[in-house]
Amino acid sequence: MIAKPNRDRKAEHHEAIRREILDAAWDAAHETSIAGLTLRDIATRVGMQQPSLYSHFASKQAIYDAMFEQAWQACLDYLKEAAADLPAEPRARLIAMAARYFDFAVADLARHQLMDVNVIPNFQPSEQAYAPAVEVYGLMLEDLRGIGITAPEDADIFTAITGGLVNQQLANDPGGQRWRRLIPRVISMWADDLGLPPAKKEPAKEEPE
């Protein structure tokens, strides 16, 4: 008979409390702001004294670090799940790539600010927390190379275009579609600059006689 491995219940309990603290931190960020988190507020939300947080996170920066990793891991999972549905045609693929990141980013302002806006003074993510972000960027580069876009500056332009539309949407029309509707037009202008072939038009359907 094969014995079941002993469970480390202490470690499981510790990890469960860490998750509860992070959930509370996200709740607070959504109610106030990502930059306005306080350890006192987070501790109150999980029903513990503020010094007790240090048994699970060394500092507020460590909480931000874990949140940063969570955010980019969620993005990575989302993009991987959507990858199979990307169109093969180059222009349509670029538009879909921009739209899927746009949709993820605008869905959560606090998360976007932590991931992309650098609103927290002196915060630098750890190598572990930054790893999913590196993988996301690698997926984008792979997609661009599949279209024939290999220059680093072109990848920079793509991220600047997409990020700019995200920021405009969140700043001026949160919850709306004003800047999302511009994605096909703006990406098509960039595709023209790159010299990509025009999108193939669907053959006209013959009208029945």
What report would you give on this structure?
The protein has 209 residues and is mainly alpha-helical. It has helices spanning 9-31, 39-46, 60-82, 90-106, 109-117, 127-147, 152-172, 183-194.
In short:
The protein is mainly α and 209 residues long. It has helices at 9-31, 39-46, 60-82, 90-106, 109-117, 127-147, 152-172, 183-194.
Approximate shape: elongated
Secondary-structure-based class equals mainly alpha
User: What are the secondary-structure elements, in order, as H or E?
Assistant: HHHHHHHH
Query: What percentage of residues falls in helices of 4 or more residues?
Result: 55-70%
Strand content: under 5%
What is the helix tally?
8
Radius of gyration: 22 Å
Mean pLDDT: 91
Q: Which helices and strands appear, and what pairs or packs with what?
A:
Blueprint lengths: L8 H23 L7 H8 L13 H23 L7 H17 L2 H9 L9 H21 L4 H21 L10 H12 L15
List the keywords.
single chain; 209 residues; mainly alpha; 64% helix; elongated
